[in-house]
Amino acid sequence: MSHLSERLAQLKSENRAAFIAYLPAGFPTVEKSKAAIEVLVKNGADIIEIGFPYSDPIMDGPIIQEAADIALANGAGAKEVLEILEFTTNLNVPAVVMTYWNPIEQYGISKFADAIKSANGSGVITPDLSLEEANPWINESNRAGIDNIFVAAPSSLPERLNHVASACSGFVYAASLMGVTGTRTSVSSSAKDLVARIRESVQTPVCVGLGVSTPEQAKEVASYADGVIVGSALIKILLEQPDFETGLKELATLTKSLADGIRQAR
Amino acid sequence: MSTTTDLTGGKPDVSVGHFGEYGGRFVPEALVAALDELAQMHAQTQTDPTFIAELDELHRTYSGRPSIITEAKRFACYAGGARIILKREDLNHTGSHKINNVLGQALLTKRMGKSRVIAETGAGQHGVATATAAALMGLDCVVYMGEEDTKRQSLNVARMKLLGAEVVPVTSGSRTLKDAINEAMRDWVTNVADTHYILGTVAGPHPFPTMVRDFHRIIGDEARAQVIELTGKLPDAVLACVGGGSNAIGIFYPFIQDTSVRLIGLEAGGDGIETGRHASAISGGRPGVLHGARSYMLQDKDGQTRESHSISAGLDYPGVGPEHAYLHDIGRAEYRPITDKEAMEAFSLLSRTEGIIPAIETAHALAGAMKVGNELGPKATLLINLSGRGDKDVETAANYFENLKM
Ligand SMILES: Cc1ncc(COP(=O)(O)O)c(C=O)c1O
Question: What is the ipTM metric for this complex?
Answer without folding.
Answer: 0.95
